[in-house]
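--- STAGE predict ---
source: upstream dedup step, 1 unique chain passed
mode: sequence only
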Amino acid sequence: MNSTSTALNAHLHLPGVMTACSWRAGWRSLLLREYQDPAEAEQFTTPATADHLIVLVVDGRCDIEGRYRGSWHKSSYRAGCIGMTAPGEEVTLRWRDNGAHATLQLHLPEATLRSAYEDLADRHVPAPAMPHVLGYDDDLIATTLLTLSSAMSEGVSDLYAETMAHFLTSHLLVRHAKALPRMTQGIDGLRMRRMDEFLQANLGDAISLEDIAAVAGISRFHLVRLFRKIHGETPFRRLTRMRIEEAKRKLQAGRESVTEIAFACGYDNPAHFASAFRRWVGASPSEYRKQAR
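--- STAGE serialize ---
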């Protein structure tokens, strides 16, 4: 069984109830799930996978014990606390608390781990071990998982998930696994213009980080880093900005319906388009059209 199918079956080994799943939302770049966990869990074992698992407690608390690498470890979970299971690691868990608690569980695929490391470091140097810990605090990881959860519920595209998966994996490699980035040369303004031209010409299409990186001739890791450095935003946010600006121009022209504009600007669901437009502009597409006349 491959790592993806194993991750998809992870809920079968857990005592909690799954309440949301990114796979159902159409995301394929990562697997994010929400769980309501019972107040008490007798000993159970989660099988090893090739993915890296991050668990964030979002509500409640419990005293948890985990057995891995031959010994038991203890931690007191509360909202904001993180646990991580490294690829290839089997963990036995049990816990008690005074009430149910809720968690977000993020599986970062093996392919993303490998790609991010090859983009980041010298591929001839063996990759370091990913972090494996029962209890940890990292505000960036916690915020990223909460942001992903909100994006999942809002129907945001898989490009956003792919961007965040690559960013989060790079953070884990550098800050937790202590991977050493190799030195790279900067990208010139011509390449950045080419990327912007590519985005503008393909606003209605599903665009991946791989597509944008291919235009620039750089890796996905450096693509995300350079977008933040030069534009101060992620590729997904810049694409969204361009799509909203194009939608505003079309709404002002008044020749197409809101639904037609949504499809032309890369949204396969008019409701998702309306929600994104309101967040950026402060008004619905229909309200904006009336104001622009």
